[in-house]
Design a protein that fits this description.
Elements lengths: L10 H6 L2 E5 L2 E2 L7 E2 L3 E5 L7 E8 L2 E2 L5 E10 L5 E11 L20 E9 L2 H6 L1 E12 L6 E11 L5 E8 L2 E2 L5 E10 L6 E10 L20 E9 L2 H6 L1 E11 L6 E11 L5 E8 L10 E10 L6 E10 L20 E9 L2 H6 L2 E10 L6 E9 L7 E8 L2 E2 L5 E10 L6 E10 L20 E9 L2 H6 L1 E11 L6 E2 L3 E7 L5 E8 L9 E10 L6 E10 L20 E9 L2 H6 L4 E8 L6
Parallel strand pairs: 6-11, 13-18, 26-32
Antiparallel strand pairs: 1-4, 2-3, 5-7, 7-9, 8-10, 10-11, 12-14, 14-16, 15-17, 17-18, 19-20, 20-22, 21-23, 23-24, 25-27, 27-29, 28-30, 30-31, 30-32, 33-34, 34-36, 35-37
Length: 608
Protein backbone atom coordinates (compact mmCIF):
# COMPACT_ATOMS: atom_id res chain seq x y z
CA UNK A 1 0.00 0.00 0.00
CA UNK A 2 1.09 3.59 -0.52
CA UNK A 3 1.10 5.85 2.41
CA UNK A 4 1.31 9.71 2.00
CA UNK A 5 2.07 12.76 4.09
CA UNK A 6 2.37 16.54 3.46
CA UNK A 7 4.77 19.25 4.76
CA UNK A 8 4.76 22.97 4.28
CA UNK A 9 8.15 24.25 3.35
CA UNK A 10 9.47 27.17 5.43
CA UNK A 11 11.80 30.01 4.39
CA UNK A 12 14.49 28.46 6.46
CA UNK A 13 14.03 25.24 4.48
CA UNK A 14 14.50 27.21 1.28
CA UNK A 15 17.48 29.04 2.74
CA UNK A 16 19.14 25.67 3.73
CA UNK A 17 18.70 24.39 0.20
CA UNK A 18 17.16 20.91 0.90
CA UNK A 19 14.76 18.87 3.09
CA UNK A 20 15.77 15.33 4.16
CA UNK A 21 13.06 12.96 5.49
CA UNK A 22 13.82 9.43 6.79
CA UNK A 23 10.87 7.01 7.54
CA UNK A 24 10.47 3.44 8.97
CA UNK A 25 7.45 1.26 8.29
CA UNK A 26 6.24 -0.74 11.29
CA UNK A 27 3.77 -3.58 11.34
CA UNK A 28 2.43 -5.98 13.95
CA UNK A 29 1.89 -9.51 12.80
CA UNK A 30 -1.02 -11.56 14.17
CA UNK A 31 0.98 -13.02 16.74
CA UNK A 32 4.23 -11.96 17.63
CA UNK A 33 6.32 -8.87 18.03
CA UNK A 34 6.18 -5.75 15.90
CA UNK A 35 8.42 -5.71 12.96
CA UNK A 36 10.11 -2.63 11.45
CA UNK A 37 11.19 -2.00 7.97
CA UNK A 38 14.50 -0.65 6.90
CA UNK A 39 14.90 3.16 7.04
CA UNK A 40 14.15 4.97 3.88
CA UNK A 41 15.27 8.63 3.24
CA UNK A 42 13.88 11.12 0.78
CA UNK A 43 15.68 14.43 -0.03
CA UNK A 44 13.70 17.41 -1.37
CA UNK A 45 15.68 20.25 -3.02
CA UNK A 46 13.74 23.62 -3.24
CA UNK A 47 13.98 25.65 -6.44
CA UNK A 48 16.19 28.58 -5.22
CA UNK A 49 15.99 31.79 -7.30
CA UNK A 50 17.99 34.52 -5.48
CA UNK A 51 17.45 38.03 -7.00
CA UNK A 52 17.76 41.72 -6.00
CA UNK A 53 16.47 45.00 -7.46
CA UNK A 54 17.53 48.67 -6.97
CA UNK A 55 15.64 51.84 -7.68
CA UNK A 56 17.31 55.28 -7.30
CA UNK A 57 15.82 58.79 -7.08
CA UNK A 58 17.10 62.31 -6.32
CA UNK A 59 15.44 65.26 -4.68
CA UNK A 60 15.38 67.84 -6.12
CA UNK A 61 15.60 66.51 -9.59
CA UNK A 62 16.86 69.87 -10.87
CA UNK A 63 19.21 72.40 -9.28
CA UNK A 64 19.94 76.04 -10.05
CA UNK A 65 22.82 77.13 -7.86
CA UNK A 66 26.12 76.22 -6.33
CA UNK A 67 25.70 74.89 -2.77
CA UNK A 68 22.28 73.27 -3.21
CA UNK A 69 21.94 69.81 -1.51
CA UNK A 70 20.68 66.81 -3.46
CA UNK A 71 19.23 63.95 -1.39
CA UNK A 72 19.52 60.53 -3.04
CA UNK A 73 17.16 57.63 -2.13
CA UNK A 74 18.12 53.99 -2.95
CA UNK A 75 15.28 51.40 -2.56
CA UNK A 76 16.80 47.89 -2.38
CA UNK A 77 14.33 44.94 -2.79
CA UNK A 78 14.89 41.17 -2.43
CA UNK A 79 13.08 39.98 -5.48
CA UNK A 80 14.21 36.31 -5.15
CA UNK A 81 13.05 33.48 -2.86
CA UNK A 82 16.03 33.26 -0.59
CA UNK A 83 17.16 35.55 2.10
CA UNK A 84 19.98 37.87 1.07
CA UNK A 85 22.76 38.81 3.44
CA UNK A 86 25.66 41.24 3.27
CA UNK A 87 23.55 43.67 1.31
CA UNK A 88 25.39 46.84 0.27
CA UNK A 89 24.91 49.81 -2.11
CA UNK A 90 27.84 51.71 -3.61
CA UNK A 91 28.34 54.38 -6.28
CA UNK A 92 29.83 53.01 -9.45
CA UNK A 93 29.75 56.15 -11.60
CA UNK A 94 29.41 59.82 -10.53
CA UNK A 95 29.89 62.96 -12.66
CA UNK A 96 29.74 65.50 -9.84
CA UNK A 97 32.88 67.57 -9.22
CA UNK A 98 32.48 67.37 -5.46
CA UNK A 99 33.06 64.44 -3.11
CA UNK A 100 31.13 61.25 -4.02
CA UNK A 101 27.94 60.77 -1.96
CA UNK A 102 28.33 58.35 0.96
CA UNK A 103 25.44 55.80 1.00
CA UNK A 104 23.97 54.68 4.31
CA UNK A 105 21.61 51.59 4.62
CA UNK A 106 19.60 50.65 7.74
CA UNK A 107 20.11 46.82 7.42
CA UNK A 108 22.46 44.33 5.83
CA UNK A 109 19.98 41.45 5.15
CA UNK A 110 16.68 41.14 3.38
CA UNK A 111 14.12 38.34 3.32
CA UNK A 112 12.50 37.60 0.01
CA UNK A 113 10.00 40.29 -0.92
CA UNK A 114 11.34 42.78 1.62
CA UNK A 115 12.76 46.23 0.77
CA UNK A 116 14.86 48.84 2.53
CA UNK A 117 15.69 52.43 1.75
CA UNK A 118 19.27 53.65 1.74
CA UNK A 119 20.19 57.35 1.55
CA UNK A 120 23.00 59.69 0.55
CA UNK A 121 23.40 63.44 -0.01
CA UNK A 122 25.56 65.66 -2.25
CA UNK A 123 26.28 69.39 -2.35
CA UNK A 124 26.21 70.84 -5.83
CA UNK A 125 29.27 72.78 -7.02
CA UNK A 126 29.53 75.57 -9.57
CA UNK A 127 31.28 73.17 -11.91
CA UNK A 128 28.19 70.94 -11.75
CA UNK A 129 25.95 73.90 -12.68
CA UNK A 130 28.31 74.81 -15.51
CA UNK A 131 28.27 71.17 -16.75
CA UNK A 132 24.45 71.09 -16.79
CA UNK A 133 23.89 67.68 -15.12
CA UNK A 134 25.02 65.48 -12.26
CA UNK A 135 24.76 61.79 -13.32
CA UNK A 136 24.92 59.08 -10.68
CA UNK A 137 24.92 55.23 -11.04
CA UNK A 138 24.80 52.90 -8.02
CA UNK A 139 24.92 49.10 -7.61
CA UNK A 140 23.17 47.00 -4.91
CA UNK A 141 24.52 43.51 -4.06
CA UNK A 142 23.53 40.68 -1.72
CA UNK A 143 24.72 37.15 -0.89
CA UNK A 144 22.06 34.33 -0.89
CA UNK A 145 21.74 32.32 2.30
CA UNK A 146 22.84 28.76 1.85
CA UNK A 147 25.53 29.67 -0.57
CA UNK A 148 25.73 30.61 -4.15
CA UNK A 149 27.04 33.63 -5.97
CA UNK A 150 26.02 37.20 -4.97
CA UNK A 151 23.27 38.84 -6.86
CA UNK A 152 23.48 42.51 -8.01
CA UNK A 153 21.31 45.23 -9.45
CA UNK A 154 22.13 48.76 -10.70
CA UNK A 155 20.18 51.98 -10.96
CA UNK A 156 21.02 55.48 -12.30
CA UNK A 157 19.66 58.93 -11.83
CA UNK A 158 20.52 62.31 -13.37
CA UNK A 159 19.99 65.67 -11.69
CA UNK A 160 19.56 68.46 -14.17
CA UNK A 161 21.21 71.87 -13.61
CA UNK A 162 18.82 74.54 -14.87
CA UNK A 163 21.29 76.92 -16.46
CA UNK A 164 20.27 80.62 -16.56
CA UNK A 165 23.19 82.61 -17.99
CA UNK A 166 22.92 86.40 -17.82
CA UNK A 167 25.15 89.44 -17.46
CA UNK A 168 24.60 93.07 -16.42
CA UNK A 169 26.52 96.26 -17.24
CA UNK A 170 26.51 99.51 -15.30
CA UNK A 171 28.37 102.33 -17.01
CA UNK A 172 29.31 105.65 -15.42
CA UNK A 173 31.55 108.61 -16.22
CA UNK A 174 33.66 110.80 -13.99
CA UNK A 175 33.27 113.76 -14.04
CA UNK A 176 29.63 113.86 -15.00
CA UNK A 177 30.04 117.27 -16.62
CA UNK A 178 32.89 119.05 -18.38
CA UNK A 179 33.59 122.68 -19.16
CA UNK A 180 36.55 122.75 -21.55
CA UNK A 181 38.41 120.89 -24.25
CA UNK A 182 41.29 118.77 -22.98
CA UNK A 183 39.50 117.45 -19.89
CA UNK A 184 39.91 113.70 -19.31
CA UNK A 185 36.80 111.56 -18.78
CA UNK A 186 37.18 108.24 -16.98
CA UNK A 187 34.51 105.67 -17.86
CA UNK A 188 33.79 102.82 -15.43
CA UNK A 189 32.05 99.67 -16.75
CA UNK A 190 30.94 97.38 -13.91
CA UNK A 191 30.24 93.97 -15.46
CA UNK A 192 28.38 91.50 -13.22
CA UNK A 193 27.56 87.82 -13.82
CA UNK A 194 23.91 87.85 -12.81
CA UNK A 195 23.29 84.26 -13.97
CA UNK A 196 24.11 80.91 -12.36
CA UNK A 197 26.83 79.68 -14.68
CA UNK A 198 30.38 80.83 -15.17
CA UNK A 199 30.91 83.19 -18.09
CA UNK A 200 34.08 83.21 -20.14
CA UNK A 201 35.31 85.49 -22.90
CA UNK A 202 33.88 88.45 -20.98
CA UNK A 203 34.50 91.71 -22.82
CA UNK A 204 33.13 95.26 -23.10
CA UNK A 205 32.99 97.13 -26.39
CA UNK A 206 31.82 100.62 -27.28
CA UNK A 207 28.80 100.42 -29.55
CA UNK A 208 27.86 104.08 -29.90
CA UNK A 209 29.90 107.21 -29.16
CA UNK A 210 29.07 110.83 -29.99
CA UNK A 211 32.46 112.33 -29.10
CA UNK A 212 34.47 113.85 -31.92
CA UNK A 213 37.80 112.53 -30.65
CA UNK A 214 39.24 109.02 -30.66
CA UNK A 215 36.77 106.44 -29.32
CA UNK A 216 37.67 105.27 -25.83
CA UNK A 217 39.13 101.75 -25.65
CA UNK A 218 37.77 99.63 -22.79
CA UNK A 219 40.24 97.56 -20.80
CA UNK A 220 39.08 94.77 -18.44
CA UNK A 221 41.20 93.09 -15.72
CA UNK A 222 40.02 89.60 -16.70
CA UNK A 223 37.88 87.54 -19.09
CA UNK A 224 35.99 85.18 -16.74
CA UNK A 225 33.27 85.81 -14.17
CA UNK A 226 31.74 83.36 -11.70
CA UNK A 227 28.06 83.84 -10.83
CA UNK A 228 27.63 86.93 -8.70
CA UNK A 229 31.15 88.14 -9.43
CA UNK A 230 31.83 91.62 -10.86
CA UNK A 231 34.78 93.37 -12.44
CA UNK A 232 35.41 96.99 -13.35
CA UNK A 233 36.52 97.72 -16.88
CA UNK A 234 37.85 101.20 -17.59
CA UNK A 235 38.33 103.60 -20.48
CA UNK A 236 39.38 107.23 -20.83
CA UNK A 237 38.55 110.00 -23.28
CA UNK A 238 39.90 113.51 -23.76
CA UNK A 239 37.26 116.07 -24.65
CA UNK A 240 37.49 118.25 -27.74
CA UNK A 241 36.12 121.69 -28.43
CA UNK A 242 33.59 120.10 -30.77
CA UNK A 243 32.28 118.09 -27.80
CA UNK A 244 31.87 121.25 -25.72
CA UNK A 245 30.09 122.93 -28.61
CA UNK A 246 27.79 119.88 -28.94
CA UNK A 247 26.66 120.21 -25.33
CA UNK A 248 27.03 116.55 -24.36
CA UNK A 249 28.94 113.33 -25.00
CA UNK A 250 26.86 110.14 -25.29
CA UNK A 251 28.54 106.77 -24.90
CA UNK A 252 26.93 103.32 -25.14
CA UNK A 253 28.77 100.08 -24.39
CA UNK A 254 27.87 96.37 -24.52
CA UNK A 255 29.16 93.66 -22.21
CA UNK A 256 29.39 90.12 -23.63
CA UNK A 257 30.00 86.76 -21.91
CA UNK A 258 29.92 83.14 -23.09
CA UNK A 259 28.17 80.51 -20.87
CA UNK A 260 29.24 76.82 -20.82
CA UNK A 261 26.53 76.00 -23.34
CA UNK A 262 24.34 78.03 -25.59
CA UNK A 263 24.80 81.45 -27.16
CA UNK A 264 26.63 84.39 -25.59
CA UNK A 265 24.73 86.72 -23.29
CA UNK A 266 24.94 90.52 -23.52
CA UNK A 267 23.99 93.65 -21.61
CA UNK A 268 24.06 97.31 -22.70
CA UNK A 269 24.28 100.56 -20.77
CA UNK A 270 25.12 104.14 -21.60
CA UNK A 271 26.48 107.24 -19.91
CA UNK A 272 25.97 110.86 -20.91
CA UNK A 273 28.44 113.56 -19.90
CA UNK A 274 27.05 117.07 -20.01
CA UNK A 275 29.15 119.88 -21.43
CA UNK A 276 28.35 122.92 -19.29
CA UNK A 277 28.30 125.63 -21.90
CA UNK A 278 29.20 129.13 -20.71
CA UNK A 279 29.31 131.40 -23.74
CA UNK A 280 30.72 134.88 -23.21
CA UNK A 281 32.61 137.55 -25.08
CA UNK A 282 34.64 140.55 -23.99
CA UNK A 283 35.40 143.79 -25.80
CA UNK A 284 38.18 146.22 -24.94
CA UNK A 285 38.15 149.41 -26.97
CA UNK A 286 41.03 151.86 -27.07
CA UNK A 287 41.77 155.01 -29.05
CA UNK A 288 44.97 156.83 -29.92
CA UNK A 289 45.68 159.98 -31.88
CA UNK A 290 48.44 160.64 -34.38
CA UNK A 291 50.80 162.11 -31.73
CA UNK A 292 50.30 165.61 -33.04
CA UNK A 293 48.54 168.45 -31.25
CA UNK A 294 44.87 168.13 -30.52
CA UNK A 295 43.47 169.74 -33.63
CA UNK A 296 40.89 169.52 -36.35
CA UNK A 297 41.97 166.95 -38.93
CA UNK A 298 43.75 164.69 -36.45
CA UNK A 299 43.08 161.03 -37.24
CA UNK A 300 41.96 158.88 -34.31
CA UNK A 301 42.60 155.12 -34.54
CA UNK A 302 40.19 152.89 -32.61
CA UNK A 303 41.24 149.38 -31.67
CA UNK A 304 38.64 146.78 -30.68
CA UNK A 305 40.08 143.70 -28.92
CA UNK A 306 37.35 141.05 -29.14
CA UNK A 307 37.98 137.92 -27.02
CA UNK A 308 35.99 134.70 -26.63
CA UNK A 309 36.01 134.39 -22.84
CA UNK A 310 33.55 131.49 -22.74
CA UNK A 311 34.04 127.77 -23.36
CA UNK A 312 32.17 127.36 -26.66
CA UNK A 313 32.94 128.61 -30.14
CA UNK A 314 31.24 131.80 -31.27
CA UNK A 315 30.17 132.54 -34.82
CA UNK A 316 28.62 135.51 -36.54
CA UNK A 317 30.93 137.92 -34.73
CA UNK A 318 30.10 141.56 -35.43
CA UNK A 319 30.72 145.07 -34.07
CA UNK A 320 28.22 147.87 -33.72
CA UNK A 321 28.37 151.39 -32.27
CA UNK A 322 26.10 152.07 -29.33
CA UNK A 323 27.01 155.69 -28.60
CA UNK A 324 29.29 158.26 -30.31
CA UNK A 325 29.79 161.90 -29.37
CA UNK A 326 31.70 162.95 -32.49
CA UNK A 327 30.09 165.44 -34.84
CA UNK A 328 30.59 163.22 -37.90
CA UNK A 329 29.21 159.69 -38.41
CA UNK A 330 30.62 157.03 -36.08
CA UNK A 331 33.56 154.99 -37.37
CA UNK A 332 32.80 151.52 -38.74
CA UNK A 333 34.96 148.72 -37.32
CA UNK A 334 36.61 146.17 -39.59
CA UNK A 335 37.35 142.66 -38.22
CA UNK A 336 39.54 139.91 -39.74
CA UNK A 337 37.11 137.07 -38.99
CA UNK A 338 33.55 136.24 -37.93
CA UNK A 339 34.27 133.24 -35.67
CA UNK A 340 36.26 132.81 -32.46
CA UNK A 341 37.26 129.65 -30.61
CA UNK A 342 37.35 129.78 -26.80
CA UNK A 343 40.36 131.74 -25.60
CA UNK A 344 41.01 133.27 -29.01
CA UNK A 345 41.02 137.00 -29.70
CA UNK A 346 40.99 139.22 -32.74
CA UNK A 347 41.71 142.89 -33.21
CA UNK A 348 39.28 145.05 -35.17
CA UNK A 349 40.09 148.63 -36.17
CA UNK A 350 38.37 151.84 -37.22
CA UNK A 351 39.49 155.43 -37.84
CA UNK A 352 37.85 158.81 -37.32
CA UNK A 353 39.01 162.29 -38.31
CA UNK A 354 38.45 165.01 -35.72
CA UNK A 355 36.39 168.02 -36.68
CA UNK A 356 36.75 171.49 -35.20
CA UNK A 357 33.56 170.87 -33.27
CA UNK A 358 35.20 167.83 -31.67
CA UNK A 359 38.24 169.91 -30.74
CA UNK A 360 36.02 172.63 -29.29
CA UNK A 361 34.14 170.06 -27.16
CA UNK A 362 37.40 168.82 -25.70
CA UNK A 363 36.70 165.08 -26.02
CA UNK A 364 35.18 162.35 -28.19
CA UNK A 365 33.50 159.34 -26.57
CA UNK A 366 32.63 156.14 -28.38
CA UNK A 367 30.85 153.02 -27.06
CA UNK A 368 30.77 149.84 -29.15
CA UNK A 369 29.23 146.38 -28.75
CA UNK A 370 30.67 143.02 -29.83
CA UNK A 371 28.15 140.23 -30.47
CA UNK A 372 28.66 136.50 -31.13
CA UNK A 373 26.39 133.47 -31.47
CA UNK A 374 27.12 130.28 -29.43
CA UNK A 375 26.18 126.75 -30.64
CA UNK A 376 23.01 126.92 -28.55
CA UNK A 377 21.09 129.70 -26.88
CA UNK A 378 20.87 133.43 -27.56
CA UNK A 379 23.79 135.57 -28.76
CA UNK A 380 26.20 137.00 -26.19
CA UNK A 381 27.49 140.56 -26.23
CA UNK A 382 29.95 142.89 -24.52
CA UNK A 383 30.24 146.68 -24.56
CA UNK A 384 33.29 148.89 -24.17
CA UNK A 385 33.85 152.64 -24.36
CA UNK A 386 36.82 154.73 -25.39
CA UNK A 387 37.27 158.39 -24.47
CA UNK A 388 39.68 160.54 -26.44
CA UNK A 389 40.63 163.65 -24.56
CA UNK A 390 42.89 166.48 -25.76
CA UNK A 391 46.54 166.04 -25.08
CA UNK A 392 46.61 169.02 -22.73
CA UNK A 393 50.17 170.20 -22.21
CA UNK A 394 50.22 173.18 -19.88
CA UNK A 395 53.71 174.64 -19.62
CA UNK A 396 55.31 177.90 -18.47
CA UNK A 397 58.81 179.35 -18.83
CA UNK A 398 60.43 182.18 -16.85
CA UNK A 399 63.40 184.42 -17.73
CA UNK A 400 64.78 186.84 -15.14
CA UNK A 401 67.12 189.87 -15.57
CA UNK A 402 68.42 192.58 -13.24
CA UNK A 403 69.27 196.20 -14.18
CA UNK A 404 71.92 197.40 -13.64
CA UNK A 405 73.99 194.29 -14.05
CA UNK A 406 76.82 195.90 -12.06
CA UNK A 407 76.10 198.11 -9.00
CA UNK A 408 78.60 200.81 -8.13
CA UNK A 409 77.27 202.26 -4.89
CA UNK A 410 75.31 201.46 -1.77
CA UNK A 411 71.70 202.61 -2.11
CA UNK A 412 71.58 202.00 -5.82
CA UNK A 413 68.16 200.73 -7.09
CA UNK A 414 68.10 197.41 -8.97
CA UNK A 415 65.06 196.67 -11.14
CA UNK A 416 64.27 193.01 -11.83
CA UNK A 417 62.26 191.96 -14.90
CA UNK A 418 60.66 188.46 -14.84
CA UNK A 419 59.31 187.43 -18.24
CA UNK A 420 56.74 184.58 -17.95
CA UNK A 421 55.93 182.85 -21.27
CA UNK A 422 53.09 180.35 -21.92
CA UNK A 423 54.97 177.52 -23.70
CA UNK A 424 52.07 175.03 -23.52
CA UNK A 425 48.89 174.56 -25.55
CA UNK A 426 46.24 175.82 -23.13
CA UNK A 427 45.46 179.26 -21.74
CA UNK A 428 46.91 179.96 -18.28
CA UNK A 429 45.48 182.20 -15.59
CA UNK A 430 46.60 183.64 -12.26
CA UNK A 431 50.21 184.01 -13.31
CA UNK A 432 52.36 184.71 -10.27
CA UNK A 433 56.07 184.96 -9.51
CA UNK A 434 57.69 184.07 -6.18
CA UNK A 435 61.26 184.50 -5.03
CA UNK A 436 62.83 181.16 -4.11
CA UNK A 437 66.40 182.16 -3.23
CA UNK A 438 67.83 185.65 -2.50
CA UNK A 439 71.30 186.51 -1.23
CA UNK A 440 70.63 190.20 -0.60
CA UNK A 441 70.73 191.46 3.00
CA UNK A 442 67.58 193.50 2.60
CA UNK A 443 63.96 192.54 2.16
CA UNK A 444 63.28 190.21 -0.74
CA UNK A 445 61.93 191.99 -3.80
CA UNK A 446 58.22 191.37 -4.40
CA UNK A 447 57.31 190.82 -8.05
CA UNK A 448 54.19 192.42 -9.45
CA UNK A 449 52.55 190.80 -12.48
CA UNK A 450 49.79 192.08 -14.76
CA UNK A 451 46.47 190.32 -14.35
CA UNK A 452 44.51 188.44 -16.99
CA UNK A 453 44.78 185.21 -18.99
CA UNK A 454 47.95 184.20 -20.74
CA UNK A 455 47.35 182.61 -24.13
CA UNK A 456 49.67 179.92 -25.51
CA UNK A 457 52.83 181.57 -26.87
CA UNK A 458 52.13 184.87 -25.08
CA UNK A 459 54.37 186.44 -22.42
CA UNK A 460 53.85 188.74 -19.48
CA UNK A 461 56.54 190.86 -17.77
CA UNK A 462 56.54 191.02 -13.99
CA UNK A 463 58.79 193.53 -12.14
CA UNK A 464 60.41 193.91 -8.75
CA UNK A 465 62.95 196.35 -7.24
CA UNK A 466 65.69 196.21 -4.63
CA UNK A 467 68.04 198.79 -3.00
CA UNK A 468 71.65 197.63 -2.70
CA UNK A 469 73.03 197.61 0.89
CA UNK A 470 76.55 197.79 2.26
CA UNK A 471 76.36 194.11 3.13
CA UNK A 472 75.55 193.40 -0.54
CA UNK A 473 78.65 195.37 -1.59
CA UNK A 474 80.73 193.50 0.92
CA UNK A 475 79.34 190.22 -0.45
CA UNK A 476 80.31 191.23 -3.98
CA UNK A 477 77.04 190.23 -5.60
CA UNK A 478 73.34 189.76 -5.10
CA UNK A 479 71.89 186.50 -6.48
CA UNK A 480 68.19 186.05 -6.97
CA UNK A 481 66.07 183.10 -8.23
CA UNK A 482 62.33 182.94 -8.72
CA UNK A 483 59.67 180.58 -10.07
CA UNK A 484 56.50 181.42 -11.93
CA UNK A 485 53.23 179.54 -11.42
CA UNK A 486 49.93 179.59 -13.31
CA UNK A 487 46.70 177.63 -13.49
CA UNK A 488 45.62 175.64 -16.59
CA UNK A 489 41.90 175.10 -17.34
CA UNK A 490 42.03 171.73 -15.58
CA UNK A 491 44.50 169.90 -13.45
CA UNK A 492 47.18 171.13 -11.08
CA UNK A 493 49.09 174.38 -11.41
CA UNK A 494 52.21 174.47 -13.52
CA UNK A 495 55.47 175.81 -12.13
CA UNK A 496 58.60 176.85 -13.95
CA UNK A 497 62.09 175.78 -13.02
CA UNK A 498 63.89 178.46 -11.02
CA UNK A 499 65.18 181.40 -13.12
CA UNK A 500 68.01 183.53 -11.71
CA UNK A 501 69.71 186.89 -12.08
CA UNK A 502 72.96 188.10 -10.52
CA UNK A 503 73.89 191.77 -9.89
CA UNK A 504 77.64 192.20 -9.38
CA UNK A 505 79.05 194.81 -6.93
CA UNK A 506 81.93 196.95 -8.29
CA UNK A 507 84.17 196.80 -5.17
CA UNK A 508 86.91 199.59 -4.70
CA UNK A 509 88.62 198.99 -1.37
CA UNK A 510 90.85 201.96 -0.13
CA UNK A 511 92.41 203.16 3.13
CA UNK A 512 94.16 206.44 4.27
CA UNK A 513 96.40 207.19 7.26
CA UNK A 514 97.12 210.62 8.81
CA UNK A 515 99.80 210.71 11.55
CA UNK A 516 100.65 213.60 13.99
CA UNK A 517 102.85 214.11 17.07
CA UNK A 518 102.30 216.27 20.18
CA UNK A 519 104.43 218.19 20.93
CA UNK A 520 106.00 218.76 17.60
CA UNK A 521 109.34 219.85 19.25
CA UNK A 522 111.19 218.67 22.36
CA UNK A 523 114.02 220.31 24.36
CA UNK A 524 115.22 217.70 26.76
CA UNK A 525 115.58 214.04 27.34
CA UNK A 526 112.65 212.45 29.15
CA UNK A 527 109.93 214.40 27.42
CA UNK A 528 106.86 212.30 26.23
CA UNK A 529 105.69 212.50 22.64
CA UNK A 530 102.03 211.39 21.87
CA UNK A 531 101.50 210.07 18.38
CA UNK A 532 98.00 210.06 16.78
CA UNK A 533 97.16 207.84 13.75
CA UNK A 534 93.83 208.67 11.96
CA UNK A 535 92.86 205.63 9.80
CA UNK A 536 90.01 206.25 7.29
CA UNK A 537 88.16 203.71 4.99
CA UNK A 538 88.02 205.68 1.78
CA UNK A 539 86.72 202.73 -0.33
CA UNK A 540 83.19 201.27 -0.76
CA UNK A 541 83.54 197.99 1.12
CA UNK A 542 84.03 197.26 4.78
CA UNK A 543 87.60 196.58 5.85
CA UNK A 544 88.49 194.15 8.58
CA UNK A 545 91.72 193.36 10.44
CA UNK A 546 92.53 197.06 10.34
CA UNK A 547 95.92 197.68 11.96
CA UNK A 548 98.74 200.32 12.16
CA UNK A 549 102.41 199.38 12.38
CA UNK A 550 105.57 201.43 12.68
CA UNK A 551 107.65 201.13 9.52
CA UNK A 552 110.59 203.53 10.30
CA UNK A 553 111.73 205.16 13.61
CA UNK A 554 114.90 207.17 14.28
CA UNK A 555 114.53 207.47 18.04
CA UNK A 556 117.10 205.73 20.18
CA UNK A 557 114.60 204.66 22.75
CA UNK A 558 111.93 201.97 22.64
CA UNK A 559 109.88 202.00 19.44
CA UNK A 560 106.36 203.20 20.22
CA UNK A 561 103.60 200.56 20.07
CA UNK A 562 100.45 201.62 18.19
CA UNK A 563 97.08 200.83 19.81
CA UNK A 564 93.80 201.03 17.85
CA UNK A 565 90.26 201.02 19.35
CA UNK A 566 88.96 198.50 16.78
CA UNK A 567 89.78 196.32 13.80
CA UNK A 568 86.91 197.03 11.35
CA UNK A 569 85.99 200.12 9.33
CA UNK A 570 82.92 200.67 7.22
CA UNK A 571 83.26 202.79 4.07
CA UNK A 572 83.92 206.50 5.12
CA UNK A 573 84.51 205.51 8.74
CA UNK A 574 87.67 206.61 10.64
CA UNK A 575 89.33 205.62 13.89
CA UNK A 576 92.20 207.15 15.94
CA UNK A 577 95.06 204.92 16.93
CA UNK A 578 97.70 206.14 19.43
CA UNK A 579 101.26 205.54 20.61
CA UNK A 580 103.72 207.29 23.03
CA UNK A 581 107.49 207.77 23.12
CA UNK A 582 109.93 209.20 25.71
CA UNK A 583 112.86 211.09 24.24
CA UNK A 584 116.49 210.30 25.06
CA UNK A 585 119.61 212.49 25.21
CA UNK A 586 120.70 210.86 21.98
CA UNK A 587 117.49 212.06 20.36
CA UNK A 588 118.29 215.66 21.63
CA UNK A 589 121.82 215.29 20.38
CA UNK A 590 120.51 214.04 17.00
CA UNK A 591 118.33 217.07 16.70
CA UNK A 592 115.18 215.18 15.49
CA UNK A 593 113.09 212.04 15.92
CA UNK A 594 111.50 210.76 12.70
CA UNK A 595 108.69 208.21 12.61
CA UNK A 596 107.00 206.35 9.66
CA UNK A 597 103.83 204.17 10.01
CA UNK A 598 101.56 202.14 7.68
CA UNK A 599 97.85 201.29 8.05
CA UNK A 600 96.44 198.00 6.56
CA UNK A 601 92.93 196.57 6.22
CA UNK A 602 91.40 193.45 4.54
CA UNK A 603 88.48 193.87 2.06
CA UNK A 604 85.77 191.15 1.65
CA UNK A 605 87.60 189.88 -1.43
CA UNK A 606 91.11 190.32 -2.70
CA UNK A 607 94.38 191.15 -0.94
CA UNK A 608 94.70 193.67 1.98
Amino acid sequence: MTCSATYTVTQADVDTGQIENTAVATGTPPGGATVDSNESTAVFTPRRTPAISLSKSASPSAVTADGQQVDYTFVVTNTGNVTLAQIGVEETAFTGSGADPQISCPEDALAPGRSMTCTASYTVTQADIDRGTVANTAAASGTPSGGGPAVTATASDTVTADQDPSVSLVKSAEPESVTAAGQVLTYAHVVTNTGNVTLTGVDVTETAFSGSGTDPEVSCPGTSLAPGQSMNCAATYTTTQTDINAGEIDNTATATGTPPTGPAVTATDDATVTADQDPSVSLVKTVVGDDGPFRSGEVLTYTFLVSNTGNVSLTGMELSDVAFSGSDPAPEGSCPDTALAPGDSMTCTATYTLTQADVDSGSVTNTARATGTPPAGPPVASQSSALFTPRVNPALALAKTGEPVVATAVGQLVTYTLLATNTGNVTLTDVDVAETAFSGSGARPQAVCPTGPLAPGASVACTATYVVSQADFNAGRVTNTAVATADPPTGPSVTTPPAGATVTMEQTPALTLAKSAEPEAVTAAGQQVDYTYVVTNTGNVTLTAVDVTETAFSGSGTVPEVSCPGTSLAPGQSMNCAATYTTTQADINAGAVTNGAAATGTPPAGPP
